[in-house]
């Protein structure tokens, strides 16, 4: 079958070509009956306007690939909740895939995006992902959560997040502060936050007591006992997810006098434990900044890096 044109849709709908264009542009001045008649024909024949026709109307036809590390990530879902409305507002079509912290999967997703001729990519990075492997996307990719000097990046101030917690606890009189974190192989959530804890302890002559491992709340629940001893009065967790597991363990052991802190401003943490101190890394802002950076890249503007500020949430 020959591909239909706007002229064909107009003839089949018994309206003018300009009316079809107005329907495609969501013009509110088109009557409901006319809009329904045109849309019925469009759906019946699977009509898709050509890119050139859309460009003439000034309508964006961009497809944006988004690679998250895992769809279950609370932090990344908070960022996505701000990214998607901004893309939809610009009439962009997002394609969301999951990397599962696997560089090979990232390569496969990028190959798929290349085949689909996506206009831009937003990538949630992780430690094992090498900057060099992303170079071919340099002018149409924004990376979130890790700072790659040669790529547009939006990243979190991991060291400041832990420093804010430690400073607050120290000012409250806590001197025995333990730490529950993520393995140092994770350069941001793991290494950077752990080093911030150790550095504060060294600066203030505190005895460090830290354990690092997995990211999940189950791991935290099973291992909190390893960093709890009689004098401990506070526990800093590298993420809110770890804090949830630690708090469950401490409640069961009736150790509610220990002040637990987290990083991430997780809605679930504050629903379960409203009085827990946490750090807002800037998840609400990351989407807006990432989309702005991507649009700028696609308009041939320079590569940018942006470190998000963080703040305590009481």
UniProtKB/TrEMBL annotation:
Q: Keyword Nucleotide-binding: yes or no?
A: no
- Occurrences of domain HTH lacI-type (ranges): 4-58
The record's InterPro entries line, in alphabetical order, gives:
HTH_LacI, LacI/GalR-like_sensor, Lambda_DNA-bd_dom_sf, Peripla_BP_I, Trehalos_R_gpbac
Q: What is this protein called?
A: Trehalose operon repressor TreR
Gene name as annotated: treR
Top-rank lineage group of the source organism: Bacteria
Q: Keywords, A to Z?
A: DNA-binding, Transcription, Transcription regulation
Q: Which PROSITE patterns match?
A: HTH_LACI_1 (PS00356), HTH_LACI_2 (PS50932)
């Amino acid at each position: 079958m020959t591909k239909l044109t706007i002229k064909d849709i107009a003839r089949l709908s018994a309206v003018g070509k300009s009316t079809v264009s107005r329907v495609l542009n969501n013009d509110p001045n088109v009557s409901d009956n006319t809009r329904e008649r045109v849309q019925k024909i469009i759906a019946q024949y699977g009509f898709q306007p050509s890119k050139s026709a859309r460009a003439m109307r000034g309508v964006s036809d961009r497809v944006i690939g988004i690679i998250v590390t895992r769809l279950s990530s609370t932090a990344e879902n908070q960022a996505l909740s701000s990214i998607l409305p901004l893309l939809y507002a610009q009439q962009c079509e997002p394609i969301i895939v999951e990397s599962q912290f696997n560089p090979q999967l990232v390569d496969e997703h990028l190959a798929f995006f290349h085949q689909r001729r996506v206009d831009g990519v937003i990538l949630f990075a992780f430690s094992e992902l090498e900057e060099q492997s992303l170079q071919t996307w340099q002018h149409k990719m924004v990376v979130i959560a890790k700072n790659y000097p040669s790529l547009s990046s939006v990243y979190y101030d991991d060291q400041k997040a832990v420093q804010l917690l430690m400073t607050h606890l120290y000012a409250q009189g806590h001197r025995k502060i333990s730490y529950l974190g993520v393995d140092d192989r994770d350069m941001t959530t793991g290494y950077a936050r752990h080093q911030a804890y150790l550095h504060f302890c060294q600066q203030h002559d505190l005895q460090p007591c830290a354990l690092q491992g997995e990211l999940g709340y189950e791991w935290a629940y099973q291992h909190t006992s390893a960093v709890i001893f009689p004098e401990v009065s506070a526990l800093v967790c590298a993420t809110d997810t770890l804090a949830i597991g630690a708090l469950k363990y401490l409640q069961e052991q009736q150790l509610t006098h220990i002040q637990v802190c987290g990083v991430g401003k997780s809605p679930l943490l504050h629903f379960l434990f409203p009085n827990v101190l946490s750090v807002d890394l800037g998840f609400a802002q990351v989407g807006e900044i990432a989309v702005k950076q991507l649009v700028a890249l696609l308009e041939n503007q320079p590569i940018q890096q942006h470190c998000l500020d963080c703040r305590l949430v009481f």
